[in-house]
């Protein structure tokens, strides 16, 4: 058979096979040699599933003499397929899960060598960067819940497991893994973060490179520059992005909860120090099993609070306001509220100078070399802000771990390596509270209320352009509303100059019911990188990427499609935004219409008399899967409850509905 011209596939090529294939067909095989190590008691008392499991394990090639070794499950978000030399056979959705299989193999070898039986499964994950501005974003947050459900089902589907090791890296897969592991209860579990990718030697990081379209549209860059920078941005093949976005923040939070080994978050993917974390995590899982320590002994209210404290000290992504409550809920713990987050952010100083917050904006791998989570925790311990009696996956308390870190060769070597490689003082990356204060690092998260957000909203106040902050440390912006129902319309207006100095972009119908609570980094990144746009504010019931910066207020509640007053704003209405970066308080209010100005109280009255905008509608491509997710999470506490599935609350609503029908 001759090959068809390149790119053409014939019917014969689809239907026909090489005749030699039929000659080798078989219906029987000899089967594994040896015998199952079973006893009469096992045959009489064990469930048939446990016995058949031994047959399958032998069939897959495990030594029958070792079939009664303790079994441990490794779950990951691995995606794509690599050849032995690392070249791609099939691409993954993103670099964050591309090399994760190497960690699985490393952990599995360690378990096998210590006379345990490793099982491995994967639930891969999408990329928020790849889906920015596309219909794929409508599935993003909803996917987290689905993945957590599947991961939990896989865990329970190996009923003979003694513990679970989870490996994940990025925005949705890692929170899903935290939620799954949090449900482990009496079983030990441990999370191995997938690490970060390296910076290009010359070029742009993965956050800035996502703005090449907006910058090209404004003639800031050439086609050639965009093509070259876009090619270089992901400088190594694995790991999460180089900035402290959702992926990196989730790694930090997992370690801060005690679910990961000390100094595991933000390791450079593919390097020996990264693989070493998987090896030692497998040992730690065995130790937890030997000590009888379950996940419920580690994930406590104190662990959740410690994670919130470290989140504040890092200045992490606001998306963790969704994922930390979800993890707490999965563990059967109290979900932190917006008030809890606000109180912690008022108390805890920001100590980390990282992309995108600045002021210098070091990359995540540089934060790792500066000491990352344990180094930040040393400062927080000295300030009395942590509960260091909390147990961790080392089998020891946080206090014990920090004592080890402070005197460790690991700490000395990685910090020295940062000086050698990049000529960076690690104390310029992770600062003491006094030094951070003197350099103007401010707390990160503020929760504005007002007549447009009666149930609250969130802004990363530290990321507002410092030139817009007055002598009283206040950001004040009053301007006309430019209302958009879809992100596509908003980004089109920005790219084509239809948004001007002083405007307030009001992007609605982006919440859970409208668009799956889409992430609108395409909008915020364009505003950051276009000259006049630092003077444009954004209000939305959607959410932001962890790399977003600027005067961007998200999570506005109630959302427009749930009757929120944000859905009654009209084009040209005057909106006032005030953010106090010192007190971490803020307001967003309607204060004018047409040529008339009035007080926020009058704005509240007028909003109450208005009908919702007639053009409010879900995204035209909103999938039924995400519509169902939005309804279930609304019944479970909504955005501020972590967008979880609360089975008791959902069933109670269904019961009430059935009784009233």
TrEMBL record:
The keyword Cytoplasm does not apply. One of its GO terms (cellular component) is cytosol. The keyword Ligase does not apply. Residues 449-589 form the Dihydroxy-acid/6-phosphogluconate dehydratase C-terminal domain. GO terms for molecular function: xylonate dehydratase activity. It comes from the Bacteria. Signal peptide: none annotated. InterPro entries: Dehydratase_YjhG/YagF (IPR017798), Dihydro-acid_dehy_C (IPR042096), DiOHA_6PGluconate_deHydtase_CS (IPR020558), ILV_EDD_C (IPR056740), ILV_EDD_N (IPR000581), IlvD/EDD_N (IPR037237). Gene3D superfamilies: IlvD/EDD C-terminal domain-like. Keywords: Lyase. Residues 93-400 form the Dihydroxy-acid/6-phosphogluconate dehydratase N-terminal domain. Belongs to the IlvD/Edd family. This is Dihydroxy-acid dehydratase. It comes from Granulicella sibirica. The lineage of its organism: Bacteria, Pseudomonadati, Acidobacteriota, Terriglobia, Terriglobales.
């Amino acid at each position: 058979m001759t090959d068809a011209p390149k790119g053409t596939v014939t019917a014969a090529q689809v239907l026909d096979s090489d005749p030699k294939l039929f000659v080798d067909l078989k219906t029987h095989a000899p089967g594994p040699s040896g015998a199952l190590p079973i006893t009469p008691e096992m045959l009489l008392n064990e469930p048939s599933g446990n016995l058949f499991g031994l047959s399958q394990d032998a069939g897959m090639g495990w030594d029958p003499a070792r079939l009664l070794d303790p079994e441990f499950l490794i779950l990951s978000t691995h995606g794509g397929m690599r050849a032995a030399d690392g070249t791609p056979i099939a691409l993954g959705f993103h670099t964050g899960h591309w090399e994760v299989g190497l960690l699985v193999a490393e952990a599995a070898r360690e378990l096998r060598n210590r006379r345990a039986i490793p099982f491995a499964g994967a639930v891969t994950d999408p990329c928020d960067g790849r889906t920015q501005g596309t219909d794929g974003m409508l599935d993003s947050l909803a996917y987290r819940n689905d993945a957590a459900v599947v991961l939990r089902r896989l865990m329970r589907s190996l009923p003979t497991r003694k513990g679970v090791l989870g490996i994940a890296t990025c925005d949705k897969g890692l929170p899903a893994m935290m939620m799954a592991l949090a449900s482990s209860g009496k079983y030990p579990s441990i999370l191995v973060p997938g690490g970060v990718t390296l910076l290009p030697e010359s070029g742009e990081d993965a956050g800035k490179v996502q703005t090449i379209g907006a910058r090209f549209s404004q003639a800031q860059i050439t086609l050639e520059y965009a093509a070259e920078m876009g090619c270089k941005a992901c400088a190594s093949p694995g790991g999460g992005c180089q900035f402290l976005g959702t992926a990196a923040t989730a790694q930090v939070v997992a370690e801060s909860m005690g679910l990961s080994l000390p100094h595991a978050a933000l390791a450079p993917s593919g390097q020996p120090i990264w693989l070493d974390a998987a090896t030692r995590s497998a040992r730690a899982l065995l130790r937890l099993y030997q000590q009888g320590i379950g996940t419920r002994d580690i994930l406590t209210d104190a662990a959740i609070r410690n994670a919130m404290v470290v989140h504040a000290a890092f200045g992490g992504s606001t998306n963790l306001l969704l994922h930390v409550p979800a993890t707490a809920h999965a563990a059967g713990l109290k979900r932190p509220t917006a008030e809890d987050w606000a109180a912690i952010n008022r108390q805890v100083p920001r100590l980390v100078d990282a992309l995108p917050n600045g002021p210098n904006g070091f990359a995540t791998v540089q934060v790792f070399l500066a000491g990352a989570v344990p180094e930040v925790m040393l400062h927080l311990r000295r300030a009395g802000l942590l509960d260091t009696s909390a147990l961790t996956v080392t089998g020891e308390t946080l206090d014990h771990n920090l004592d080890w870190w402070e005197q460790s060769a690991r700490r000395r070597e990685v910090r020295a390596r940062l000086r050698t490689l990049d000529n960076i003082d690690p104390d310029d990356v992770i600062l003491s509270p006094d030094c951070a204060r003197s350099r103007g690092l401010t707390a990160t998260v503020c929760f504005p209320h007002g007549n447009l957000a009666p149930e609250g909203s969130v802004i990363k106040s530290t990321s507002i352009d410092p030139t817009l902050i007055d002598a009283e440390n206040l950001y004040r912006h009053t301007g006309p509303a430019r209302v958009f129902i879809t992100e596509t319309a908003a980004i089109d207006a920005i790219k084509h100059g239809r948004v001007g100095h002083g405007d307030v972009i009001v992007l609605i119908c982006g919440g859970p019911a409208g668009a799956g609570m889409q992430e609108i980094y395409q909008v915020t990144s364009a505003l950051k990188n276009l000259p006049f746009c630092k003077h444009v504010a954004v209000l939305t019931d959607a959410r932001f990427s962890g790399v977003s910066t600027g005067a961007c207020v998200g999570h506005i509640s109630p959302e427009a499609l749930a009757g929120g007053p944000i859905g009654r704003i009209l084009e040209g209405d005057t909106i006032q935004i005030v953010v106090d970066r010192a007190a971490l308080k803020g307001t967003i209010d309607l204060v004018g219409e047409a040529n008339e100005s009035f007080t926020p109280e009058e704005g509240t009255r007028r909003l109450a008399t208005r009908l919702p905008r007639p053009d409010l509608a879900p995204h035209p491509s909103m999938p039924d899967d995400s519509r169902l997710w939005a309804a279930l999470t609304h019944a479970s506490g909504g955005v501020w409850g972590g967008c979880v599935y609360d089975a008791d609350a959902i069933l109670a609503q269904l019961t009430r509905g059935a009784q009233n029908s």
